[in-house]
């Protein structure tokens, strides 16, 4: 088996296996930790697709930021003792039926559509090109992104701070 | 058939993305725990990103797909921060993050 195919199937198995645990596990802590495997697998797929910069961003932001945040939220809101009620699911059979139909339709589309493909996929370091794109055609969304992040920062503080009640509350 | 399985192309990545998307949607549809729903949303965003990068690699030949993937990652970070802040606020008020317990706005 060629190296590229074996690496691809390994990463795909890691991604999908962890995603299965995320979607099906009865324990929320297991789901949150399994998300680590999914993010690592997806980062590996990015690297396999010659997107080195995005792969590093994926590891830094998703695993170093979002996953740690989610684990904090799980630990803060979740009473570890009551495992049974921690990750209740309802409507499994209707959801599975709907998603079976949706997945089949989309799978048939992926299999039969005539995707436009270049003869030679792009394989070169991407950081320079991404930097040029950010400071060239994408300069406006790039600047707006900083505003969005600032708003999210302030919004998170405002939403989650402890509210002081009553007119005499000072400080 | 052998070449189809071993010659990794665009469709292989699209199928991985499809499976991750379906699992994320299943997670969103069936979970009653607010954080569980956010986990499903993260799976869906990741599947969209796989598509962006795959098309950028195999089809477009420029960096637009990767730039969009970075924007999606950035917005996912903002979404996670706000979503989890709201979840913590709900937990402070209701002592539960089961979304069926939080139906005060229902008439």
Shape of chain A: extended
Which range does the strand content of chain A fall in? under 5%
Name of the CATH first level of the domain at 26-94 in chain B: Mainly Alpha
Number of helices of chain A: 6
How much helix, percentage-wise, in residues of chain A? Answer: over 70%
User: Averaged pLDDT of chain A, please?
Assistant: 85
**Poorly predicted ranges of chain B:** none
SS-based structural class of chain B?
mainly alpha
Task: Write down the oligomeric state.
Answer: heterodimer
Distance between the termini of chain B: 58 Å
CATH topology of the domain at 26-94 in chain B: Helix Hairpins
Radius of gyration of chain B: 18 Å
The backbone outline of chain B, from C-alpha atoms, is elongated
**Per CATH, which architecture of the domain at 26-94 in chain B?**
Orthogonal Bundle
The major β-sheet of chain B equals: none
**Number of helical elements of chain B:** 4
Reported for the largest beta sheet of chain A, the result is: none
Nearest-angstrom radius of gyration of chain A? 22 Å
Determine the most extensive contact between two protein chains.
Answer: A-B, 84 and 71 residues
């Amino acid at each position: 088996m060629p190296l590229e195919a074996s690496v691809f199937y390994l990463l795909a198995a890691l991604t999908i296996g962890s995603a299965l645990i995320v979607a099906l596990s009865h324990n929320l802590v297991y789901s949150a930790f399994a998300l680590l495997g999914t993010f690592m697998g997806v980062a590996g797929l990015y690297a396999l697709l010659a997107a080195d910069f995005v792969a590093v961003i994926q590891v830094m932001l998703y695993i170093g930021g979002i996953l740690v945040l989610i684990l904090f939220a799980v630990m803060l809101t979740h009473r570890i003792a009551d495992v049974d009620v921690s990750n209740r699911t309802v409507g499994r059979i209707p959801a599975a039926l709907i998603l079976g139909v949706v997945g089949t339709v989309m799978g048939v589309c992926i299999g039969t559509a005539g995707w436009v493909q270049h003869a030679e996929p792009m394989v070169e370091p991407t950081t320079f090109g991404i930097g040029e794109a950010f400071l060239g055609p994408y300069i406006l969304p790039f600047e707006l992104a900083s505003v969005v992040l600032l708003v999210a920062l302030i919004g998170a503080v405002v939403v989650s701070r402890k509210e002081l009640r009553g007119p005499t509350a000072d400080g | 058939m052998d070449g189809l399985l071993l010659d990794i192309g665009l469709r292989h990545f699209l199928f991985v993305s499809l499976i991750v998307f379906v699992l994320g949607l299943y997670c969103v549809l069936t979970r009653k725990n607010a954080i569980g729903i956010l986990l499903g949303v993260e799976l869906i965003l990741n599947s969209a990103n796989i598509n962006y990068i795959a098309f950028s690699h195999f089809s477009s030949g420029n960096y637009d797909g990767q730039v969009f993937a970075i924007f999606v990652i950035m917005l996912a970070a903002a979404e996670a921060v706000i979503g989890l802040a709201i979840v913590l606020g709900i937990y402070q008020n209701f002592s539960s993050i089961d979304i069926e317990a939080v139906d005060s706005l229902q008439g």
